Amino acid sequence: MTKHNVFFGEAQKMNKIADNSVDLIVTSPPYPMIEMWDEILFKQNNAIKEAFDKAQFEASFELMHQELDKVWQESFRVLKKGGLACINIGDATRTLNKNFRLFSNHARIIEGFINTGFQNLPNIIWRKQTNAPNKFMGSGMLPPGAYVTLEHEFILIFRKGEKRAFKTNNEKENRQNSSYFWEERNLWFSDLWNIKGTTQKIKNKKSRDRSAAYPFEIPYRLINMFSAQNDVVLDPFLGTGITTLAAIASKRNSIGYDIDKKFKDLIFSNITNQEPFINDYITNRLKNHVDFVSERKKIKGNDAFKYKNNHYNFEVITRQELEIKIPFVKKITTTNTEITADYHDAIGLTPEQKNQ
Ligand SMILES: C[S@@+](CC[C@H](N)C(=O)[O-])C[C@H]1O[C@@H](n2cnc3c(N)ncnc32)[C@H](O)[C@@H]1O
Q1: Is omega for the bond preceding 144 within 30 degrees of 0, making it cis?
Q2: What DSSP string runs through 94-133?
Q3: Which domains does the chain have, with CATH numbers?
Q4: What is the pLDDT of residues 41-68, one digit of tens each?
Q5: Residues near ligand 1 (Cβ within 6 A)
Q6: How big is the CA angle at 70 (ends 67 and 73), to the nearest 5 degrees?
Q7: Whose C-alpha in 1, 126, 290, 347 is 20 to 30 A from the C-alpha of 29?
Q8: Of 336, 337, 356, which Cα lies nearest the Cα of 347?
Q9: Is the dihedral of CA 165, 168, 173, 174 positive or negative?
Q10: 249-275 pLDDT, tens per residue?
């Protein structure tokens, strides 16, 4: 069973979370200098709006980041030694007083994390190309006043201290069960992710547009790359609850914070009755592996694989994949204060096979 808590309050003070208790942070903060986040950021400190109104935009930008810095300091407090933080952020372009410019959120966040004591690890560029005809800005074909289009965001990755150690047998087993397929490693650990902003199949599309939710694939990959089953994952800027859903799907526990209570119903409705969505997603992951095996055998012959997974009747490329187990979700239970998820013990390639 996994447990999932959702708290409403400022991520600058996550009083409900003990020091050194979280294994992984996956989040996307409000983006400084993107207009849709002005209001919420202005509210954090009056000086932010005062500077903005006086056209001191760099100062306003800096003050917004000083609010985020407090969350990075709080993240450092709650993370265990060796825990990772993955921050999805986009830079902002904006025309202010008729002057078009870039505010480099990713650069300022890296600085904030390093000043907090984190180590920066190689980052990911999340490319979400659009084909919209109006995507180019500025003076069209006339130099030099046209601007490069921003079609990417970043996933910045940081670690608190040295690499995590897996000491007890239980920790080691969780880690082995949580390994991913060789071909997934090749895709996930590339520094360029091509994921459309809208691949998500869950409901409430309208609210998603208003809240700038990320697609399920983003937190799902990050959680599976950087934590083990039964770990605790935290999202300090939970929004619509996609990180919670990805944690449930990955058999991790989770904690979410958001300042805005109006997300409560949306978070709960995004999680309730999502067993079929999650189990389809896992089935797909397994089917993709089965397809990969048969494609590789076609090219390299039947001896292409040296290893067979200990739980499924399929081959794998490396020894590290022998214990992979991806449990299907049996039941998600939501009460007013808590969400829990139960999993099927038996392992199968489809939810129907799970009891065989
Ligand atoms: C970019 S959105 C997160 C979207 C989320 N990843 C999702 O998929 O729905 C940022 C969220 O941070 C919340 N927020 C802003 N300032 C906050 C603060 N100081 N503490 C906690 N939450 C905050 C906003 O209400 C918003 O839901």
Answers
A1: yes
A2: EEETTEEEEE-HHHHHHHHHHHHTPEEEEEEEEE-----T
A3: 2-275 (3.40.50.150), 282-355 (no CATH)
A4: 999 999 999 999 999 999 999 999 999 9
A5: 10-12, 28-30, 40, 211-214, 236-237, 239-240, 242, 257-260, 263
A6: 155
A7: 1
A8: 356
A9: negative
A10: 999 999 999 999 999 999 999 999 999
